Amino acid sequence: MTDFSEPPGAGAAPASRRPAAGAVGRSAAPRATLGSVAALAGVSKQTVSNVINAPQMVRGNTASRVNAAITQLGYRPHRAAAQLRTRRSRVLGLRIPNRYTDAVFDRFLHALTDAAGALDYRIMLYTADDDTAEIRAYDELLDGWDIDGFVLTGTHPGDERTSYLSGAAVPCVTFGRPWDDSGHHPWVDVDGAAGTRAATEHLISHGHRRIGFLGWPDSSGVGGDRLAGWAGAISAAGLPALEPSRAVNDAHQGRAAAAALLDHTQPTAIVCASDVLALGAISEITARGMEVGRQIAVVGFDDTDISEVSGLSSLAQPLVEVALQSARLIAALLEKPADGPPEHVLLPPTLVTRASSAAFLP
Amino acid sequence: MTDFSEPPGAGAAPASRRPAAGAVGRSAAPRATLGSVAALAGVSKQTVSNVINAPQMVRGNTASRVNAAITQLGYRPHRAAAQLRTRRSRVLGLRIPNRYTDAVFDRFLHALTDAAGALDYRIMLYTADDDTAEIRAYDELLDGWDIDGFVLTGTHPGDERTSYLSGAAVPCVTFGRPWDDSGHHPWVDVDGAAGTRAATEHLISHGHRRIGFLGWPDSSGVGGDRLAGWAGAISAAGLPALEPSRAVNDAHQGRAAAAALLDHTQPTAIVCASDVLALGAISEITARGMEVGRQIAVVGFDDTDISEVSGLSSLAQPLVEVALQSARLIAALLEKPADGPPEHVLLPPTLVTRASSAAFLP
């Protein structure tokens, strides 16, 4: 039988929890410990431990006294001991991407912390430079911090992370579908193609006929999905298929690619794979003395703060819903072994229209 | 003696770690367990446990065999067992603010995850609606997840969180100084007054004489600090003390406050308490047909992505350094009881000049 570790009370804090010099107890009562429960109930610490761990070993009126003391003092047994019994930590790992600013990830992180918390899970963060380092981090976190499972983001073709976790029988859910056959796990994703299709149809309904696409260099995965929605809507409407322009996700690179798009294809509207690229396009259009939304319409993707400030129409990902579904799926996997194929949730983004794509008849 | 909990190997995964249907082991070797180490060394699991927990109980050549097997298999004892021995989880709690987009917090979070990771700590997130809820969350996290200590942000006058933690003898470090006598804990902060002073002196050196301030309604804490730097530089230069204009941290509110500032004080330059307020000012100036950086100079605070895209001069907080220092201070507190007053680190921000405050002689 594992005994309880005692949370440090004010009188018995281990060195590592001693307050800094100058700190004195003021507002807080000392936290209840196994010892204070035992003292109040007039029993040994072992008896308190037995009441919680092995109640059949303790006589009824002794157990009642101990339970009353536990309630009165608000004592909660230490989770580390509970972990050894249940092998569950209620902790989910989440890699924080290397780029310091990724509004979509950060919003998802906030929403996931909330959604996981509502199911009594906590999110533990880690960093990794690449997939190989991330796989190393899994083992560290599983061994060192006893993590129950992982929430992965940034899935991509050839993603070794999900096959590694499947092989190690570690539960995971991904925000992002598998872009090949690498994953047999539950996932939640946003339907990027549906988003760019909606943006393109919106522009068509406003009279645009030459609608360009400013996307990312890699046409696989998320970038290809967003390109496909635009291309499908253009094709369905029988409009000219202007050659897309491409840049990495950076406003300066986006501006250069927008310049090429304007020069080579003379669009009256541009659907962009991200708000960051859209900002590059806005800079270039403005620098050419044209007004965004009057001479050239622009639609972004992600509906960041920047969109609102810039009057940029954009596609809003339902990140709160993505987080709720992700938390639900991994909690289900942890709490009940899967008895069917893993569940997949694909959510549409919402087009938010602003001045950058206001009514316009070229 | 606490025994080890066995990390689940592929052959003995508890139900909760069973792979989803369809998942099969592929790339990963089964994770080493106490049992596989024992089998390889030809000893009992108890002997393996003794080698790690109580080596004096085990004969030398048996211990050698076990240690060789541990090395060969890459076995790492389960952290939950180690926690019970050391009462240390190597987990730090960090509250994620309610606002979904806070570029400064998010950058700090990334940098702190890195800095804590380098010291073998992990960051666990939690949410709370207010200080009272945050204090409740402390107890949940201490009892339920065995957290070693907390990194707090958003310190403010009358902050009950730090006095609560001091009273409960729970180590904490704050990003943000205590704005009254509530804290006797180590802290790291950015010198906001030094930042706005540098911004104001920069504008003065470019010929501006009527320099306004667009700040937050609450003049205590961070907002008051940023206002004080501007006011000090204005006073030192003997320039007119224009009445500041105030708004909550929102671009629309900021725009309205900027309009009032322009109408009532006719500034040629505006120092803003944040980039978000600065964006409001830019919108208003542009809407009046004036050019930012030519007719009216604007300086923001926080050097967000928005600054770079908008050509906004701004003050960059040294968030990587703040994170490194925060991690260092709490690790020191956890690893060695404080034997002197708590350490405080105040770091200056860096003025990044762009077109919005280009050379100008009104």
Question: Mind explaining what this structure looks like?
Answer:
The structure is a homodimer of 362-residue chains. The first copy, chain A, is an alpha/beta fold. Chain A folds into three domains: 10-17 and 27-86, 434 Repressor (Amino-terminal Domain) (Orthogonal Bundle); 91-190 and 319-348, Response regulator (Rossmann fold, 3-Layer(aba) Sandwich), CATH 3.40.50.2300; 192-317 and 351-357, Response regulator (Rossmann fold), CATH 3.40.50. Chain A is 44% helix and 14% strand. In chain A, the strands form two sheets. In chain A, strands 2-1-3-4-5-11 form a six-stranded parallel β-sheet, with helices on both faces. The first copy, chain A, has a six-stranded mixed β-sheet with strand order 7-6-8-9-10-12, with helices on both faces. In chain A, β9, α12 and β10 (313-316) form a beta-alpha-beta unit. In chain A, α1 crosses α3 (60-73) and α8 packs parallel to α9 (221-236). The longest helix of chain A has 17 residues, at 319-335. The first copy, chain A, is elongated, with a radius of gyration of 27 Å. Residues 1-29 of chain A have low confidence and may be disordered. The interface between A and B is large, with 93 and 94 residues. β2 of chain A pairs antiparallel with β2 (122-126) of chain B, so a sheet runs across the interface.
